[in-house]
Amino acid sequence: MEKGGNEHGSRCFIVGFNENSCKYPHHRAASGLTKAEDPAEQRHVLYGALVGGPDGNDAHFDVTSDWTYNEVTIDYNAAFVGAAAGLYHFYGSPEDPIDENFPPEEENSGENGGNAYWVEAFAVDDLHDDGAGVTKISFTVRTDSNKPSDNISVRYYFNAEEIANISSVTASELYDQSNVEAGEDGADGIVSGPFKYDKAENTYYIEVSWDGYKIANSGKKYQFSMGMYYGDTWNPKNDYSYQDLPVLTDNDMFGDNHETKTDRICVYDNGVLVGGTEPDGSTVQPEIPEPTANTEETTSEPVSETTSETTTTSGTDSVKLGDVDLNGGIDILDVILLNRSVLGKSVLSDVQKKNADVDFNGTPEPADALMIMKYIVKIIEEF
User: Fold this and answer.
1) Structure confidence by residue, pLDDT tens digits, 199-231
2) Do residues 350 and 363 lie in contact, with contact meaning Cβ atoms separated by under 8 Å?
3) Can you tell me the distance from the alpha carbon of 113 to that of 144, in angstroms, rounded to the nearest whole number?
4) pLDDT digit string (tens) for 10-52?
5) How crowded is the C-beta side of 311, counted as CA atoms within 13 Å?
6) 198 assigned to some structural domain
7) Are residues 255 and 119 in the same domain?
8) Does the N-terminal peptide bond of residue 194 adopt cis geometry, omega within 30 degrees of 0?
9) How many distinct structural domains can be found in the chain?
10) C-alpha 135 chain-centroid distance
11) Which one of 73, 147, 198, 279 is least enclosed by Cβ atoms within 10 Å?
12) Do 261 and 318 fall into the same domain?
C-alpha cells in the first residue's frame, strides 16, 4: 500500500486513470471485501470514480476504511462525470474516439472468475519447559473466484520427527466464526487429524473442512490448536506450514486483520488441491481443455436487414442522413463532429453538410445534432 498522510507523493484522485491513481476507494461492490477494515487488494477497479481527496494540509490516506479521504459520493461524482461528458461533447474530436475496449476485461470476470484459493494466517505458541506444548492457528480462506465452492477444506502440515507417539497429538477447535454467525445456514468448520502425508517423510496434517458453506471470502476466521499439553514433545519450528507465519500473542487472537497470506497452508475443493503448495512441492494443476472433435462447419447466407435511414445519390456523392463523419454508421461521433462545426472547431465538406442537415432546413445546426441523438437512442426511427 502506498504511503499516506503528507507523504502520499504524486497521486491522482480519479480511480484507474493512471499508475498514480487511488486504488482503495471506499466502495463495497468495487472492493469485493466483506468489511471496510480489510486492507486486502480490491477485487475490481472502479474506473473514473473521484475519491474525496486530501484534507486542508494535503494529507491523504489511500485505504478502503477511510471514508473521509476515499469516499466516492454521488454529489461530486455526478458533477465530475457531467463536466467530463460536457467537455467531450463540445471539444472532443474523431481523433480522440471512445475506446471500444474500455474498460479492459478483468482477469476474473468469467462465469467462475479465477480459480485461485489461499489462506491468510498467523500462529501463537504455548510451549512448556518440559518440551510439550501447542500451537494455535488463526486463519481465513480467500479466493478470486466469483463463485466460491461450498466444499472447501484446509490442511496444516507439520513435521513429527520429534514426536515419540503421533497419537499424543490432538487438534481442538478454539473458535469458528462461521458457526457462531451463520450456524443456522449450516456453517460448521470441522477440525480433524492428524493424518499421514505420504509424499514426505515424518509429515502429517491437520484438516479443517466445511460442507455446504462457502467459507472462502466469507470474512469468517477459524482458530484451532494442535499439539499436546504433556507426555510428548512439540516443536513447531520444523513444521512445514509454520514457516513464514507471523507468530503473535493470545491477545491478537481477539483482534482483526493480523493474518497474512501463506502458500504453505493448502486449500482443497472436494479433496483436490486448489490453493497453496504441498510439502513435496505439488501445486495447483492448470486445467487443460479437452480436445474437441472435428465437426463439419455449415455456413448460411447473411440475412439482409432493412433500416429506416434515408440515402440519396447525387452524381457520385452518396448522402446518408446522420452520417456526418462519413464512416457508414450513425453514432455519438457524428453528433460530436456536428457540434464542433457549429462552434467553428471543424469544417464540414459539402457531403458532410448534407448528411448533417437532417431537418432539411439547409443549414447544419444544434437542432440537427439533437435529432441525430434522438435517432441514436431510438426516440425517433427516421429523419
Assistant:
1) 999 999 999 999 999 999 888 999 999 999 999
2) no
3) 7
4) 789 999 888 889 999 998 778 776 666 667 777 788 999 999 9
5) 13
6) yes
7) yes
8) yes
9) 2
10) 34
11) 198
12) no
Cell numbers that stand for 326 in this block: 462519413
Q: What does residue 74 show for φ and ψ, rounded to 5 degrees?
A: -70, -35
Contact 173, 207 (CB under 8 A): no
Collect contacts of 15-19 with beta carbons under 8 A, ≥24 apart: 15/45, 15/46, 15/47, 15/48, 15/49, 15/50, 15/51, 15/72, 16/45, 16/46, 16/47, 16/48, 16/49, 16/103, 17/48
Residue 71 falls inside a structural domain = no
Identify the three-state secondary structure at position 237: helix
Owning domain of residue 169 = 113-275
Residue with cell 464540414: 348
The CA radius of gyration of the chain, in Å to the nearest whole number, is 31
- Are residues 170 and 266 both part of a single domain? yes
Residue 86 CA to residue 347 CA, distance in Å, equals 21
Instruction: Assess whether 265 and 371 both reside in one domain.
Output: no
In order of 103, 222, 270, the CA distances from 209 in angstroms are: 38, 10, 10
The span from the CA of 364 to the CA of 356, in Å, is 6
Entry pTM: 0.58
Looking at the fold, whether 270 and 320 belong to one and the same domain comes out as no
The residue whose grid cell reads 477511510 is 66
In a domain, 234, yes or no: yes
- CA distance linking residue 93 with residue 326, whole number of Å: 14
